[in-house]
Amino acid sequence: MPTVKQIIDIVDQIAPFSLAESWDNSGLQVGDPRWPVSSILIALDVTDKALSEAEKLGCDMLITHHPLVMSPEKQIDFSRMPGTAILTSARSRIAVVSAHTNLDKAQDGLNDYLAQKLDIFCTDVFFSDAMKNESAGQIQGLGRIGQLGETMTLEQLAYRIKEELGIPRVRIIGNPGNMVSTAALCSGSGGSLTTQFLGSGMDVYITGDLKYHEARDIESHGKSAVDVGHFSSESIAVELLKKRLGQMFDARKYEILINSYDQEQDPFLTI
């Protein structure tokens, strides 16, 4: 039976941990690398509910996109997160592993998967600090830029995104009638890259968590954007990881059951 360490090594092949941002905390969050693994649950976030589901299913590992701990904890209080998750992990021997910005930046990672779903042909990375491995023909880095499958209005693009991601609403910036044929996209919180978008020459920016003044900047430049929300732009990481891990396990003849946690919801409710 493969161990936690061996599963982490496979995740590293899918999304190299060396790609993670310096502030990130991808990799093993809690657990023992020597623990055996026969069943995995994949989720977007490390939550008490996700860990309870892992317990119920008898899983040995919880793999998430968002890390359990992003900054150092001064104390571990078992009555609140992340302490409750650490307690459950230790008590039930459920290792917690996260693939965050490394999955965002990897070739065939989250941004490429998002682009594929939205029928965007990626031509390069978005952020100028991204890494491009020319010798291996790989595109690795934050976000992507590329061509839409066809020229359309901003409004038409918004409806397509809603349909493809299965979400009830998006926020748009710019004239709904603006014609768009090229796009920059960044899964998760992409507001900090607004300046890069405005200098990219792309027609529309697809991301989440855009702030008011960032929206005004985009509007004042006559550009367009679609804010799909942080959750909606990254919840697809669950199906991506299940697909890629399944392929890797099959190649190694690992008989590991992969479960998807399908009860997660956007923490923001519109009433």
From TrEMBL:
Family statement: Belongs to the GTP cyclohydrolase I type 2/NIF3 family.
Binding-site positions, a divalent metal cation: 65-66, 104, 230, 234
Protein name (database record): GTP cyclohydrolase 1 type 2 homolog
Keyword entries, A-Z: Metal-binding
UniProt keyword Transcription regulation present: no
UniProt xrefs under Pfam families: DUF34_NIF3
A Gene Ontology term for the protein's cellular component: cytoplasm
GO MF annotation terms: metal ion binding
Subunit structure: Homohexamer.
InterPro entries: DUF34/NIF3, DUF34/NIF3_sf
Segments crossing the lipid bilayer: none
Lineage, top ranks: Bacteria, Pseudomonadati, Thermodesulfobacteriota, Desulfobacteria, Desulfobacterales
SUPFAM superfamilies: NIF3 (NGG1p interacting factor 3)-like
